[in-house]
């Protein structure tokens, strides 16, 4: 599972999501059943973002429209200046039976290093 600050934002659209789409088969061959991407956006935006990146069949896009999951996981940050509300910190997680097994949180909140697909694949 990966979490991103927002659909259609530069880092999320140019690097983060495309990497997981590209490596979806590799992840699935290592036992990953579902690759999901969640962002604090509405379901309609997430759907269109998925279509724009041809994510269907590789990455399931989910909406946390009110940011409740981000807050519950203590992984939200105040992005009101740039994105209008609180958003997820950028991270990836390996989840097994509802429990986080490994968490890859970007230390600077929105960077593109720790949570990239290459790091997740290495840890499987």
TrEMBL record:
Keyword Oxidoreductase: yes
SUPFAM superfamilies: Thioredoxin-like
Annotated function: Thiol-specific peroxidase that catalyzes the reduction of hydrogen peroxide and organic hydroperoxides to water and alcohols, respectively. Plays a role in cell protection against oxidative stress by detoxifying peroxides.
Protein name per UniProt: Thioredoxin domain-containing protein
Domain Thioredoxin stretches: 1-124
One protein family per Pfam: Redoxin
Protein's organism: Helicostylum pulchrum
Keywords, in A-Z order: Antioxidant, Oxidoreductase, Peroxidase, Redox-active center
UniProt similarity note: Belongs to the peroxiredoxin family. Prx5 subfamily.
Record lineage: Eukaryota, Fungi, Fungi incertae sedis, Mucoromycota, Mucoromycotina
PANTHER family in the record: PEROXIREDOXIN, PEROXIREDOXIN-5, MITOCHONDRIAL
């Amino acid at each position: 599972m990966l979490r991103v600050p927002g659909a259609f934002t530069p880092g999320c659209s140019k690097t983060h999501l495309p990497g997981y789409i590209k490596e979806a088969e590799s992840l699935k061959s290592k036992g990953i059943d579902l690759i999901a991407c969640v962002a604090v956006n509405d379901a309609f935006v997430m759907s269109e973002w998925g279509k724009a990146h041809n994510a269907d069949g590789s990455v399931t896009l989910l909406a946390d429209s009110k940011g409740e999951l981000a807050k519950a996981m203590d992984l939200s940050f105040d992005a009101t200046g740039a994105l209008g509300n609180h958003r997820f910190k950028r991270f990836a997680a390996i989840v097994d039976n509802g429990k986080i097994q490994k968490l890859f949180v970007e230390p600077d909140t929105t960077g593109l290093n720790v949570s990239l697909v290459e790091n997740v694949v290495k840890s499987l």
